[in-house]
Write a structure and sequence with these properties.
By secondary structure, this protein is an alpha+beta fold. It has three domains: 234 residues, 3-Layer(aba) Sandwich (ECO RV Endonuclease, Chain A); 137 residues, DNA mismatch repair MutH/Restriction endonuclease, type II (ECO RV Endonuclease, Chain A); 88 residues, no CATH class. It is built from 15 helices and 21 strands. A hairpin with a 2-residue loop joins strand 7 and strand 8. The longest helix is centred in the last third of the chain and has 17 residues. It is globular. The termini are far apart. The model has no long low-confidence stretch (mean pLDDT 94).
């Protein structure tokens, strides 16, 4: 027998969770129909059997961002409460409605970060995570998941597909606390205006508000105004949660599990395990860990073995939750990287046709990742020894520059890539490192091959080294790159 709307006990956790099951596989339009039929329009009115007389304004099914608020009102029967307490304050449970998406390859990922609550710079506890407003409000959350990426759907079509009572996992808390300390240290140092989403591995902050210069707030240790921000669980963390806790109950290999009995964050464990080999040459390490120095992916294999892992790094719990990407970089005696650092090759037509910045190649691969740089330094000619490691993420203030290069690259592809023959080969009009100091575009293939006229190719490569442009020509595959001069600045701490 299906329950009536609002027929639950808000003083009992089990009752709230059991009642929530009534949302599963039910379109929002059906909930609105039930709400329209019932004489009771609030939780209180249902339990006091008081017929609600106030009239509701008609809602627009196009206002998708209101879905969570509407679920609170039309299914749970309460109005938005004060920001200081959890939604179900009698049981200490916060309600969060959050979307997932099914990708082209049929994998599932979080559609966005999980925004928790506003970070009040002036009032937040900056010394004890467990005494924060964040912890008070969100230490237990009822998560409602819906597919937020279905073509042509309106809010009326939204369906809650999974319900999960989230309590912060003990295995994640060392990382969460490390993230919290990094963020609050910035605030205590008068640098709240320099906060960035890349600051944290699992827990971070995001800008929150209407924009247009209206969301600047006072901070306690500086006169400089800072953007209003909210605490968040990062989209990569939510993706891991969705795939291994919600839709599937499967555990991945863990970095932390390789350090049994040690209560440390995964970044601390990685640092300790890798840096015990500081000063050792690449050749020594390849030999010690039985890695073929000529093999493709040798660096990833080496670091994996140094960490005591058996599977791929990018499939470990921590690398997935933090969206962490390994980069092994060689630098000269002055700390200058020997080479620019590439990202994966992109498809010209896909890149040119993509209008969504947050689904673009550079956003996903550059702006939305954190990086583990393992740095080998040259001590003698062609002798590189392990020098240091660095965890880093692109700060928010550089995102607009990466976006600009993406737009410029798209425009060039759509307007027609210019190919110029020179004594050194073929040059293009893609964004170059001389002008673009943060990220640029260049070829990414062992051999070059360019179609300068229909069916007329120049270069030592072959067709498999190319990708097709929108105008039908085939040219050497390209990717976005970090310039080596920029990487040196990163390693020197100039882009924290």
């Amino acid at each position: 027998m299906e329950r009536e709307l609002f027929d639950y006990d808000n003083t009992r956790e089990k009752s709230v969770v059991d009642y929530s099951q009534g949302l599963l596989n039910k379109k929002f339009s059906q909930i609105i129909e039930e709400y329209t039929r019932t004489p009771y329009k609030t939780y209180e009115d249902f339990h006091t059997k008081t017929v609600t007389t106030s009239q509701d304004r008609k809602i627009s099914m196009k206002s998708k961002g209101q879905y969570g608020n509407y679920i609170e009102k039309y299914f749970y029967g309460y109005k938005l409460n004060s920001d200081s307490d959890p939604d179900f304050d009698k049981i200490g449970v916060e309600l969060k409605v959050t979307p997932f998406k099914v990708n082209k390859n049929e994998t599932i990922s979080a559609k966005e970060r999980l925004v928790l609550t506003i970070l009040n710079y002036m009032e937040e506890n900056l010394d004890d995570f467990y005494s924060t407003h964040l912890w008070h409000k969100c230490q237990k959350m009822l998560l409602l998941f819906y597919n937020g990426k279905i073509d042509n759907q309106t809010m009326a079509d939204y369906v809650i597909e999974k319900i999960f009572l989230y309590e912060w996992f003990e295995e994640d808390m060392e990382v969460i606390l490390e993230d919290y300390r990094k963020i609050t240290d910035k605030i205590k140092n008068g640098k709240a205006h320099e906060l960035s989403e890349s600051d944290g591995n699992y827990l971070s902050t995001c800008t929150k508000g209407a924009g247009g210069g209206k969301d600047w707030r006072d901070q306690p240790f500086s006169n400089v105004k800072a953007k209003q921000r909210a605490w968040e669980l990062k989209s990569s963390y939510m993706t891991y949660l969705i795939n291994h806790k919600i839709f599937n109950q499967s555990e991945q290999e863990s970095v932390v599990s390789t350090a049994k009995g040690e209560k440390k964050s995964f970044t601390g464990i990685i640092s300790e395990k890798i840096m015990q080999y500081k000063g050792k040459a690449e050749s020594e390490l390849y030999q010690e860990f039985e890695v073929n120095p000529k093999a493709k992916g040798k660096n990833s294999t080496l670091i994996r073995k140094m960490l005591g892992l058996t599977g791929d790094l990018d499939k470990t719990q921590e690398f997935q939750k933090a969206n962490l990407s390994l980069r092994v970089i060689r630098v000269d005696k002055n700390g200058q990287p020997k080479e620019d650092s590439p990202f994966k090759t992109y498809k010209f037509k896909e890149l040119a046709g993509n209008e969504e910045w947050e689904e673009s190649e550079p956003y996903v691969e550059i702006c939305n990742k954190r990086f583990l740089f393992v740095i080998f330094k040259e001590t003698e000619k062609n002798i590189f020894v392990l020098d240091r490691i660095k965890f880093w993420g692109l700060p928010d203030r550089l995102i607009d520059e990466v976006k600009r290069v993406w737009i410029e690259t798209k425009d060039i592809i759509n307007n027609g890539v210019q190919l110029t023959q020179t004594s050194r080969g073929i040059s293009t009009n893609f964004p170059q490192s001389k002008v673009n100091k943060v990220v640029f575009t260049k070829l990414h293939a062992q051999n070059t091959y360019y179609e300068i006229e229909p069916n007329v190719f120049v270069g030592k490569g072959k067709l498999s080294d190319t990708d097709e442009l929108p105008d039908g020509r085939h040219i050497t595959k390209h990717s976005f790159w970090f310039p080596k001069k920029f990487l040196k600045e990163v390693f020197n701490g100039e882009w924290e």
